[in-house]
Amino acid sequence: MLNLRVLTLVTMILAAAATRLIPPEMRPWNFTAVGAMCLFGGAYFERRWQAFAVPLAALLLSDLVLAATVYGFESLTHVWMSYLLFGLTVLLGMTLRNRVSFGGVTLATIGASLMFFLVSNFHVWIAGHSGYPYTPAGLMACYLAAIPFAQNMLVGNLLFSAILFGGYELLASQWPVLRRAATAPVRAG
Fold first, then answer.
1. Does residue 75 sit within a domain?
2. Burial code of 144-157, b = ≥16 C-beta within 10 A, e = fewer?
3. Is the pLDDT assigned to residue 41 strictly greater than 50?
4. Are 102 and 29 in contact (CB under 8 A)?
5. Which pLDDT tens digit goes with each residue over 68-77?
6. Closest Cα to residue 34, out of 79, 96, 101, 99?
7. Within a 13 Å sphere around the CA of 152, how many CA atoms are in the beta-carbon half?
8. Which residues contact 35 (CB under 8 A, 6 or more apart)?
9. pTM for the whole thing?
10. Residue 81 class from Cβ within 10 Å (0-12 exposed, 13-18 middle, 19+ buried)?
11. For the chain, does the N or the C end have fewer beta carbons within 10 angstroms?
């Protein structure tokens, strides 16, 4: 049976994933809660498999809805890099476990956004999806063209990290049952 803490985390992550379903004409491109929900899952789920499974399953669910209603299922053929990077974002979120703070969440959010920007656009360039030449100038042109999307992702990640982390901490201050269980000290021998 799911406990209240896990149910709360899953609900918050599904709500965050739903931000992807807001039509692009109603929000800037890449302005979603996906990066924030991956950091959040990594920080708060006690079990590693849940930390990865819940945010990535929410991402997959939103991808399937978008593929069925907007982009077509062929859009799912190039998403593996995004899933890899969001998995790494979950790992980054795990560094926040038991020490969530404003500064830590802010740094992790900026780091995750920067990682996504650098790696995903390098992949787009090297895989030939961008049409830019395989030269340093071509790579720079690819990065420059992606800056508006990266800015939107950063602002979205910062906003939604504040909502998810701050919202959960506020809930946990009112309902202590949502706090992570204290771990017993490890004894030698």
1. yes
2. eebeebbebbbebb
3. yes
4. no
5. 887 778 777 7
6. 79
7. 12
8. 86, 89, 109, 112, 113, 116, 153, 156, 157, 160, 161
9. 0.87
10. middle
11. C
Measure CA 85 to chain center: 9
- Give the domain extent around 122: 4-178
Residue 189 lies in a domain: no
CA distance linking residue 46 with residue 104, whole number of Å: 18
Cα dist. 79→5, 7, 56, 68, 147 in Å?
30, 28, 12, 15, 20
119 membership: H or E segment, kind and range: helix 102-126
Q: Is 5 exposed, middle or buried (0-12, 13-18, 19+ CB in 10 A)?
A: buried
What the block records as the tokens of 107 is 């740094």
103 within some domain:
yes
Token pair 């030939």: residue? 128
Contacts of 101 (CB under 8 A, 6+ apart): none
The tally of domains found in the chain comes to 1
Tell me if 142 is assigned to some domain. yes
**Would you report the helix, strand and coil content of the chain in percent, each value rounded to 5?**
75, 0, 25
